[in-house]
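Progress note, project year one: complex with S-adenosylmethionine.
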Amino acid sequence: MHPKKIFEGVYDVDGKIATLNSTPGKRAYSEELKIADHKEYRLWNPYRSKLSAAISIGLRNFHFKNDNKVIYIGAATGTTASHISDIVINGRIYCIEMSERNMRELVKVCELRPNMLPILADASEPNSYSDYIETCDVLYQDASAREQAKILLSNSKFLKKGGYAYFVIKSQSIDISKKPKEVFEAELKTLENDFEVIERMGLEPYDRMHLFSVLKKK
Ligand SMILES: C[S@@+](CC[C@H](N)C(=O)[O-])C[C@H]1O[C@@H](n2cnc3c(N)ncnc32)[C@H](O)[C@@H]1O
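Model obtained:
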């Protein structure tokens, strides 16, 4: 079977979402590798990555391009970031992560993938890394922090005007006593002066705790 293109750099390989492996023969985590049409693909498990879950469910907006600069907040051990690295193959991803433990794993992935740059920092203090980051086309945030919208706003200075933010909101990290829907609405409201919400979706059946949103910077 021939892989079918879903978005730039994203393919359907035998019914599964995948990216073209920019480091053939090497894995970034425990993902499955698959050869199709003499090329090696990395299967992108929607249970392990919210971006893959959103694509599986039918995400309409996908703005990652081959030469894009991306700031990724909450890169963890690099699971999703490694697939974005396959997509923005001539671009760069600035991976912000505050956990030293996750950073140790992330650095190993970045050593294999020269377009991924690890930055150990708290994203609520963007001035601590502003010297290392250029203006980005896309911002991706999946950080299990208390003030997620506030973190996004303070990092939006790295995003170009008209650029896109992929904002994953985890209600449980914000306020466990409130209904998730209330938390999602309040977070998006905080952003309304600076961003237009162009798409939003739940991630069931892959994940029940998050809202996945796509925003455009005004
Ligand atoms: C759910 S994980 C991210 C998973 C990752 N996005 C993926 O799909 O591969 C959330 C991450 O956000 C990080 N995080 C939480 N608050 C942060 C902050 N203020 N600055 C930087 N990283 C933060 C956590 O350490 C954790 O690794």
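The domain at 50-217 is CATH 3.40.50.150 (Rossmann fold).
The pocket of S-adenosylmethionine is lined by residues 49-50, 74, 76, 79-80, 96-99, 102, 122-124, 142-145, 151 (CB under 6 Å).
No further modelling is planned for this target in the current period.
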